[in-house]
Amino acid sequence: MRNGSKVLLAAAGILLVADCTIPMAGAATPAAATAAPPNRSAYGTTESRIFDLINAQRQHQGLRPLVYNAQLDRMAKIQADNMARFQKMAHVLPDANLPSLGDRARYVGYTYGRIAENVALGFPNAETVVEGWMNSSGHRRNILDRDVIETGIGIARSSAGGIYYCQVFGRQR
Predict the structure, then answer these.
(1) pTM score > 0.85 for this model?
(2) What's the CA gap between 141 and 90, in Å, rounded?
C-alpha cells in the first residue's frame, strides 16, 4: 500500500477485525455452489467487484477461484445487516439472534468442514476493502486458504452511514 493510501485509510477511521475461523463440522444439508453468482444481479456492483478481486488475489497465488454459495452468501448478509443494525463490527454479536458464525451456519443449513469470516467497516469501495483485508495477516490467510472453496459476501449500511462488510469462506463437509 502506498504511504498516502495508508494515511488516507487511517484518517477515514477504517476498521478491520481479525479473522474468525472454525475448522470443525457443523450440521444440516449443504447446497450446490456455482462458479460465480448464478445471476450477476444477485450481487450489487460492490459485492460483485469484491468477489472478482478476491478471486484475482487467489489466482495470482496459484489457487483456484472461490465459487459462489448461496448459504454462505446468506450468512454474510445476516452478519453485515446485524453489524449495521447494532453499529458494531465484530464476528460475534451477543445481542443478535444469530450471534456467532457457527450459529449462522446452522441457521442456513451449511454443513462445514471449514468456515471462516472476514469483516470490515468504513471502506469506501471494493478495492479498498480487499486491499485492507490483504494487508491484514488474518484476513489474508482466509482469502488465500487452500482449504476453502466457496464464498458469500454481504454489505450493509447503518443508520449512521457506516458501511459494514462481511465475507464468509467455507468448504462443506
Answers:
(1) no
(2) 18
Query: In sequence order, what are the beta bridge partners of 170?
Result: 115, 150
Under a CB-based contact definition with an 8 Å cutoff, are residues 89 and 17 in contact?
yes
Helix 45-60 crosses helix 126-134 at what angle (to 10 degrees)? 40
Distance CA 137, CA 147 (A): 17
Cα–Cα dist 33/30, whole Å: 9
Asked if 101 and 148 count as a contact pair (C-beta separation under 8 A), the reply is no
For residue 140 the three cell numbers come to 489474508
DSSP, collapsed to helix, strand or coil, labels residue 125 as coil
Over residues 10-35, the pLDDT tens digits come to 333 345 555 565 444 333 333 444 45
* DSSP-derived secondary structure for 63-103: PPPPEEEHHHHHHHHHHHHHHHHHT---S--TTSSS-SHHH
Give the gyration radius of the chain's Cα atoms: 15
